[in-house]
Design goal:
Elements lengths: L3 H37 E15 L5 E6 L6 E2 L4 E5 L2 H26 L3 H33 L5 H30 L3 H27 L1 E3 L4 E6 L6 E2 L6 E16 L11 E5 L8 E8 L4 E2 L13 E9 L11 E7 L32
Antiparallel strand pairs: 1-8, 1-13, 2-4, 2-7, 3-6, 4-5, 6-8, 8-12, 9-10, 9-13, 10-12, 11-12
Length: about 375
């Protein structure tokens, strides 16, 4: 028994060593597998973000109507609000009247003289010629009578003056006929056309101002706040609504420097949220910051609060508008994706009929 005791103790000790070694090996194998898995998949945490727009009108007038409220989903081109438009409509009517009058004047100048005006000018000329001929005959008679001593010099001078006046009248009537036949001067037509273009521009401006009294949605979005109410005075410097733009929408995350060489813009990603467990949103890396920054307070821990990271925006498809501003989200990026300038590994071609818009990246719980 004394000789067997040491043998039994040695056997127990050997068994303990084997068990501990096996446990250590299993732990090392599990750790290596997890580390390998982590190296091939990047898990990031961030928040949903998108751009905001403050919508104002390019006109000064009182608000007459607001057609949407907070939380409403609006489409591009949808009418959101309207100002009082009576003053703008009256200005449009005033300029329209000026434009129509000037348009008729240009048409009159281009058409030239009417046939009736030409006939009248010719008739006036013929009448002037007849009076001149009569004055000429009278002058002849007066000169013959003066030679015989039947009339004095004053009567002859009066006849001469009457003839000269009649001759001048003929010349004036001939010039008038020439002007009527030639029509308006080219310069007058050009001046009238220039004034017409001025009124056309004023009418376009008045209509533009009238359109500015209506506020339309520039793109798809959600109304976040009504900043004015009916009856408030609106100016171009005073926004009427604050709107969240739903395209594009992204998740803002931060990546450590050691992973920068393994991600690139256009890389596919999968986004999940706590609000919709199990639902995956397809995404892609849309922006990688070129400068580092300290870890933001929203994602700080005691271990990384002094670490330098790079901001990354992951654009997300949000067809059902479930993702909202500030919502926490988790981003999963498969680091084994081939870069666009690298050939894809064999067997990576999607099957015929597969949906290329959906991501097939595997999700592994952190």
């Amino acid at each position: 028994m004394r000789e067997g005791a040491p043998l039994s103790a040695r056997f127990v000790g050997l068994l303990v060593v084997v068990v501990l070694g096996g446990a250590a090996g299993y732990y090392w194998w599990q750790s290596s597998a997890q580390q390998s898995e982590v190296r091939h998949q990047l898990v990031l945490y961030g928040n949903v973000d998108y751009r905001q727009a403050y919508l104002a009108m390019n006109a000064t007038e009182r608000v007459a109507e607001l057609l949407v409220d907070e939380g409403d989903l609006v489409r591009p081109g949808q009418l959101l609000a309207r100002l009082e438009t009576e003053r703008f409509a009256l200005e449009v009517q005033r300029v329209q009247a000026l434009l129509e009058a000037q348009r008729q004047r240009v048409a009159r100048l281009k058409a030239g003289s009417r046939p009736e005006e030409i006939r009248k000018a010719r008739a006036d000329l013929q009448a002037a010629i007849a009076r001149r001929n009569e004055a000429q005959r009278t002058l002849k008679r007066m000169k013959a009578a003066f030679a015989q001593g039947a009339v004095n010099q004053q009567e002859v001078d009066d006849a001469q003056a009457a003839y000269d006046t009649a001759a001048a009248t003929v010349a004036a009537r001939q010039a008038t006929l020439d002007l009527v036949v030639a029509g308006p001067r080219t310069e007058d037509i050009l001046e009238a056309e220039a004034l017409l273009r001025r009124y056309e521009a004023e009418l376009a401006l008045a209509r533009h101002v009238l359109r500015d009294a209506h506020l339309y949605a520039p793109s798809q979005g959600i109304i976040q706040a009504r900043l004015l109410e009916v009856g408030d005075m609106c100016t171009p410097q005073t926004p009427v609504f604050a709107m969240a733009l739903l395209d594009p929408i992204w998740v803002r995350v931060y990546v450590e420097e050691k992973y920068l060489g393994r991600i690139w813009e256009g890389m596919e990603a999968v986004v999940t949220t706590d609000s919709y467990p199990g639902k995956k949103y397809h995404g892609r890396v849309g922006f990688i910051a070129s400068t580092a920054e300290f870890t933001p307070k929203t994602v700080q821990t005691e271990e990384v609060r002094t670490a330098l990271v790079y901001q990354v925006r992951v654009l997300v498809d949000n067809p059902e508008f479930e993702l909202r501003l500030g919502m926490p989200a988790t981003v999963w990026i498969d680091l084994n994706q081939p870069k666009p300038n690298q050939p894809k590994p064999s067997g990576s071609k999607p099957a015929a009929g597969a949906d290329r818009t959906k991501s097939t990246l595997p999700l592994v719980a952190p």
